[in-house]
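Quick one: structure for this chain?
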Amino acid sequence: MPKLTAGSCCSTRKGGSGLLSLSAQQVKDLAVQALLGVTEEEIGVLSPAINQTLQSIEEIRKAPVSEGEPTVNGGEGGERLRADQVCLSCPQEAVLSNAPKQFDACFQTPLVLEE
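Got it. Here's what it folds into:
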């Protein structure tokens, strides 16, 4: 099976609209590469949903970002964070009184992942 790359996985729709889309076969190939067990019925549902998402991405790409004002601090480490302050909390006994199961002063929850 050929490897799909960012440039090869999408094609331009018929009619030259420039919108990206995936064929049902391309969705199936992506599912195989992602090790997902996908049925033909699921491919029929996924293909239009993925193509709708790709259309939305194309619309977002068309947005005039140069007209917007730059963000303050722009994520360069100059964010203003609140100071840590110790405040009153609920007593441990009151919080644990609603726990269905407790262990060593903690909530006991069912095992989610097996080792």
